[in-house]
Amino acid sequence: MIPMARQDEAYIRAGVMLLLIALLAAGFWLRVRHLEDLGLVVDAGSQALAVRGILQHGVPKVDSGLIYARAIPFLYAQAASAALFGLNDFSLRLPSVLFGVAAIFAAYVLAKSVFNRQVGFLTAAIMTFSVWEIEMSRFARFYTAFQCMYLISLLCFYRGFMLGERLYQFWFAVAAFITFSTHELAVFLTTCFLIPMPSPSYSPGRKLIFGLWAIGLGGVWMLYRQLIKLFAAMGEPLLFPASGELDTSTFAKINSMMAEQLGIIASLDVPDLSFVNRLAGEDLLALLGLALVPSAATVYLIYRFSWKDGGWHTLFAVPIVWMAFIHQFVLVLVLLAAYLVLFAWNRRSLLDPTLKVVSVVALVCLAFWICVLAAAPEMTMKLAIKAILGYPNVYSHFLKWIIMGWPVLTVVFALGSILLLGRFISDRSGPTPLFMLGAIFIPAVLAGFFRPLYIDSRYIFHLYPLLVIIFATTAVEVGSCFVGSFLVRQQWSQSLAAIAIALAALFISQDANPVDAWSVGSRTSRSARDWIKSPIAWELYGTFHQDHKSPSLYVRERLVPGDRVVVLGLPHMITIYLYYIGQVDYAVGRPEDFLYRAVKGGKAVDCMTGAEALESLPQVKDMIEDGSGGGIWLLGDRITLATDNPSYSQSMKEYLRSVMRNADYLGLDGQTFAVKVR
User: Fold this and answer.
1) Which of 210, 235, 260 is the endpoint of a domain?
2) Which parts of the chain sit beneath pLDDT 50?
3) Does the bond joining 392 to the residue before it have cis omega, within 30 degrees of 0?
């Protein structure tokens, strides 16, 4: 006879399995529903050309001859889908859908492993109905694959290194390598080994091993980059214009440059000290007067360290007060958080004189700089905030998107983070608080030390499930307190209350309303959408779904031999039009778009499509007004030619508007167009 406890556990497991399957099924349907209705957007055109290259050549060679070597495993997954269902919008998006559903399960397992089953279920439910998750799962690029593999890597790291399960250490190495192949930001997985360093639960020997693992993982990352360069060298060599001059580098270097810089990390950033320098020139006495404050604090801290046995934490506080002196208050907060993690062994340590000194100095310096900046005649609120909170640029890289996209979730997340920090200070032996805080804030802060070429909300998409997990655990704890304090103790009453709290949490999260989740699959090109949760987080284009497809099909049906196709607009548009039409002869762009320009046969060309680049108004006029050849089809969108859009010069926009006064075809979004000039 089966014992009652084991029988109950079996029922629970069966119920858990059914609920999880239901969530995964709902997540799949919300993501796949009407998947092919809307056309490709943003850089999905590059993916489409690369997949077509795989089907034709076995490698992701695009029309210009470039080997497109980003997210190679994902490209081959798309190619497998295209081999089964044909090369179309559905097959290109299906792998994103499948990885998006897999990310729900990965988030559930991670939340359950770190916290408990209730947190896992609430996390999975939010991920299932998250509008942002659904949007990105319907985007024919690799972001859901990156998110899914990043979560799996974190799970393996937690089980393998935080809990010491050796088998998971091996799986972490495997998962990390696959993650490296999906996105350049996977390099931040090397920072995972910083997470356990402040914990006394790990011996110095184990921490040394963690450091060796980090070095080894960094070596694997560098090895992967070299393999990518070798793979990219299979493409055709071209000349590449950089900084206005031609360089005879190979196409492998072009691809590497694009992969490493295009929207990711370009170079180390440095703090802006122009206001300190200006004040030194205009009012040196005021600056010297302020310097007395951190100087006195430094003398006191050194005194405590030398004669009062203040401990190493007193010396750690010295750079904090000097960062406040040069108005770098994000660095103050970062160093202060590191101070608490490293040296706050109990709640009484929060009353340590060192912290009191740091707090007073920081407040005095903050008040001083607010007054100085407010007195500057050209100062605006935006410039003042940038001066005080601009380095490291955690706001633009991370906080901006979550605050603007999910303000309520951000407040709950902040509260949960503070509670986790307090829990760690009270009990430094537990791995959970340290792991969750480190997994989110270490990569978010470190990214702020770099100057990117392009910042977009999708570059924090891999961290979003971690925010959801902290939100979920905070909601579960608050809900448990509520149930335990105010409701009847019967099991059925508590179950109903738990369901009600879970449903309330879905709506409070601001991203998991089932009605909104359902509406994503019903959208048209003109349907309103949240630009932060759009594949392109740029307000000009993110509030609707660009329709490049229907103008392309209109032109493709009417093309005759000798016709030429000209594309206006951002570089990614060229790839989409080429994918749908099968022909793009000219791309109108700017000389500063050098990342997208190469030289072939003595002519500047778009290095993805091979279309000839027209970078000046005389070139465009000569091409359009040349009487030889067949007809000329012009494709683009009205936003590009708007007066306040800096994409082209005013003279270029005026000329282009004059030659396409009446569109032959207007896209379903009301913005894109196709015009036959002659």
Assistant:
1) 235
2) 1, 242-265, 488, 594
3) yes
